[in-house]
Amino acid sequence: MTNAAAELVASKPNVLLDFDGPICSVFGGVGADTAARQLRDRLGLSEQHSAEVRDPFEILRYAAAEGQREAIEAERELTKLEVEAVATATPTPGAAELLRCLAGRGHRMAIVSNNSVAAVRAYLENHGLAGLVNEVSARTDADPTRLKPGPYLLHQAFEQLGVRPERCVMIGDSFADIQAAQVANVEIIAYANKPTKQDRFARYAPVTIVSDLYSLTVT
Predict the structure, then answer these.
(1) Residue 44 gets which letter from DSSP?
(2) Every domain range in the chain assigned CATH 3.40.50.1000
């Protein structure tokens, strides 16, 4: 039986990977809902923002809609929370092995993430993976329009690597990853790290879907 996903990765000299999911669970140690609540509290939004919101990025988008000053403060506090969180982030099974395998084969890699550059780099350093990743295209400012599902971070990764989209493949675990890759004309492998994602991802027509990262190292 052929492994279409692994063969696709092997055929592309450049691999783009989302961070939260394919590399680690950023808030795995604290919970995204806890991080969202902490961000609301730090920004004084408890009375202004719905307590049901469990995604810190929704808090960031809310703050950005309020104004530039609010957006900058929200982004700064979110970055602090992310850097704190990656100290206890749960590594994704097979992620480190995949990075080492790809580096050993001569692939060039970029992390493409809505998380902050500071958090991504801190995690990679803490886990001895920084030397395997060539570029990090992640959040550096408070503009939420630059985040996925928009293609900005992917285009930035192409520029950092000095390559065209057709020379790349992306691995992501969210609808935002699939949408951003499709807009940027990059073939996307959807990583269904939860059983419920398989059918839902299929509706978005990624090139292929995998349920574990180890499968990407075997052609």
Answers:
(1) T
(2) 4-26+89-217
| CB 216, CB 9: distance < 8 Å | yes
Distance separating alpha carbons of residues 171 and 165, to the nearest angstrom: 14
3-state secondary structure of 51: coil
Amino acid at 86: V
Backbone phi and psi for residue 107, each to the nearest 5 degrees, phi listed first:
-70, 150
Cα separation, 9 vs 11, in Å, equals 5
Distance separating alpha carbons of residues 208 and 210, to the nearest angstrom = 7
Distance CA 89, CA 122 (A): 11
DSSP string, 109-167: EEEEEEEEHHHHHHHHHHTT-GGG--EEEEE-SS-GGGSTTSSHHHHHHHHHHT--GGG
Say if residue 205 is exposed, middle or buried (CB neighbours under 10 Å; 0-12, 13-18, 19+): exposed
Cα radius of gyration (the chain): 17
- Strand-pair category, 90-91 with 24-25: antiparallel
Encode pLDDT of 63-104 as tens digits: 898 899 999 999 999 999 999 999 999 999 999 999 999 999
CA distance 89 to 75: 20
Q: Is the pLDDT of residue 47 over 80?
A: no
Query: Per the confidence metrics, is the pTM higher than 0.85?
Result: yes
d(CA 119, CA 16): 17
Q: What CATH homologous superfamily does 4-26+89-217 map to?
A: HAD superfamily/HAD-like (3.40.50.1000)
